[in-house]
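REQUEST ID: PR-0412
SUBMITTED BY: lab tech R.K.
PRIORITY: routine
TASK: structure prediction, single protein chain
INPUT:
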Amino acid sequence: MAKKTSTTATATVEDKLRALYNLQIVDRRIDEIRSLRGELPLEVQDLEDEITGLETRFERIHEEVSSAKTEIKGHKQLIKGCQEKISKYEEQQKNVRNNREFDAIAKEIEYQELEIQLAEKHIREFEATVETRGAVLATVEEKLAERKSHLSFKQGELESIIKETEKEEAVLLDRSKDLAENIGDERLLSAYTRIRGKVNNGLAIVSIERGASSGSYFTIPLQRQMEIAQRKKIMIDEHSGRILVDAQLAREEEEKMAAVLAVLA
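STATUS: complete
OUTPUT:
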């Protein structure tokens, strides 16, 4: 196991730099694990939201179609009732005693015929609704099935990645917490956290490679490189704002922490 950095005031700058670099190795691996998931969690959430919207739309259109079918049924019943009344009135017309009674019955028959015409008009309108909205309903249903299938695939993919890495991530998170507590310098730890949050790759502490800080093309003056190698003070890269360490320290801690993590995993 790697030696824990002293949390007392006697901890040297080198001790703190090594502890901080160890912390970054662990945090970097956590970042790598989470990057494996990529955009999957967001994709799953977006699909779930889309499905919820489609289900709501499906229910609304389904209610419209059901309502239209109910209206059609009601108007057909109305037509049937009107036809029965017309038949009754026509029988009554055969037995009228005068023109006044005949005309009165004729008006009733005419009224029922108008009711039938109006009901038939409504039936055609509602049948058109059933046809058009029914087509939309079928499209929404098809899209809903496709999205649910896609969601199932994405959820399986995400669950597989989580299952493969959740144990290692849990171990690393505990290790990161322990290392952070053992830094022994709250200001340095706060600076590390702040820098990590500002840079794209999450690396707050970098080594010098070929005369420049890792990932940078700006050459560090030789005198400054020597000061960094002495490990007597915390040095900040003036271009990237990252904490600097020498390449040897970085290699040593990478090797030691690799052995530690292999045991913990």
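NOTES: The chain has two domains: 13-36+185-264, 40-164.
REVIEWED BY: pending
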